[in-house]
Automatic annotation (TrEMBL):
Principal subcellular localization: membrane
Family: Belongs to the cytochrome P450 family.
Domain of life: Eukaryota
Keywords attached to this entry: Heme, Iron, Membrane, Metal-binding, Monooxygenase, Oxidoreductase, Transmembrane, Transmembrane helix
Signal peptide: none
Cofactor: heme
Species of the source: Arabidopsis lyrata subsp. lyrata
InterPro entries for this protein: Cyt_P450, Cyt_P450_CS, Cyt_P450_E_grp-I, Cyt_P450_sf, Cytochrome_P450_Monooxygen
Keyword Oxidoreductase attached: yes
Membrane topology: Single-pass membrane protein
GO molecular function, one term: iron ion binding
Protein name: CYP709B1
Compartmental location: Membrane
Amino acid sequence: MELVIFLALIVLLLIGLRIFEAFVILVWHPFVVTRRFKNQGISGPKYRIFHGNLSEIKKMKRESHLSTLDPSSNDIFPRILPHYQRWMSQYGETFLYWNGTEPRVCISDPELAKNILSNKLGFFVKSKMRPEVVKLVGSKGLVFIEGSDWVRHRRILNPAFSIDRLKIMTTVMVDCTLKMLEEWRKEKSKEETAQPMIKKEMHREFQRLTADVIATSAFGSSYVEGIEVFRSQMELKKCCIPSLNKVFIPGTQYLPTPSNFRIWKLERKMDKSIKRIIRSRLESQSDYGDDLLGILLKAYKTEGNERKMSIEEIIHECRTFFFGGHETTANLLTWTTMLLSLHQDWQEKLREEIFKECGKQKTLDSETFSKLKLMNMVIMESLRLYGPTSALAREASVSTKLGDLEIPKGTTVVIPLLKMHSDKTLWGSDADKFNPTRFANGVSRAANHPNALLAFSVGPRACIGQNFVMIEAKTVLTMILQRFRFISLCDEYKHAPVDHLTIQPQYGLPVMLQPLED
Ligand code: HEM
């Protein structure tokens, strides 16, 4: 009898502890954090139990996605981050909101943003992501690892993006682009009119091209061999998007729900394809090669001492570069094409520059790129207005000071890039206009603050692929402009930028192209 009472007491205690824990997470912690920020003059929308502000965010985003913008409008911040726009006008530029029970403070001051992103003491770490999103690139890949693991991976991976490697990659970029342009030419020759024109959905074309480039240049495979990885990643991405504005309950990712079964299946499929690519490299080359995959495999096969990378880490790095390497670049090329279709004067200026520096057909080499100053300015302006990343986030790993603000441990700091990139106090009264000349004296002098453009981020975690992207974008745009003219956006084009992990056109980008005389 005593034993039964004892066990019942234990059970009651455990239940009591769970209830207490839930009370702390759902009620007490939000109350304390809200008060701590309020004492510093920071407020925001009211915390609602369990959901925080997620229901409002979902509603505002749903409404904003119903509308489309005028194609000449670059004011995309209210469409993509409608909740930030509303709350900034109500509570000021720095405000507190709740992603479920997770406090988030939005900070758009470039000096504070730089301090957060450049912090080398580990006070601000990558913020937690939903498990589905983490699976896209892997928890053991460069994007999500921290501390000594990150240092080790970054050191191994940096040589894959050295100047010498980029030169070799340029040849691959040229070949892949030529393949795409050859297909366009064949379509042109089917046209019978004197002024043949072709219609292309450019977002799809660029997704395919950038996938081909990364698969060939980093993995020595090709679009065809890498296609299963891309397909699984795109499907997985589709599974992630609806969950982004839902409350995450830890543990639910292990439940045997239909959605989890689908996610697990896609993850297995993706890894199976990656393993096939790895196996074929291991069998075919004794020194594994010098591209990204070769560098990763050498880190696995280190003789004597311990392995520098496990096979699981290599697979996650492959996922990272398959995903990071094509999605963002495809969007950059898509939005730049849209801008050049709308701004024919700039398209002509770029063509003139290209003809002057590279002629009409000459194959590009890495030396030519430094001469394409106007092209550089146009790409920077495109990254400012339509950069693929809408916001960056970091979590305070300890309670810390940021400027005059005390940030409690566990708070996520969000830096809304879209807002900063269109801020008139930073960029001047024409901040919403396409004006590449603002970059004439370099990126750091284009605005009132040297770090006003954070498209590639700054500090130790800045984009490892930024030189690769710039070379790829210049190669592709140069080769297209040498051979084709973007005549106009098609009538059916709807200007609807949307954030599906990266900013892309909700309904694609149909463009009319005209081949130039040989
Ligand atoms: C227009 C194209 C691109 C843009 C705007 C871009 C932007 C960014 C940004 C903002 C970050 C920092 C994220 C954060 O701190 O939370 C980042 C990180 C990263 N990017 Fe890119 N990226 C682009 C293309 C690429 C490409 C082509 C690759 C690979 C070939 C790549 C690989 C990575 C990786 C691995 C990281 C994580 C770096 C680390 O944490 O050490 N990115 N990128």
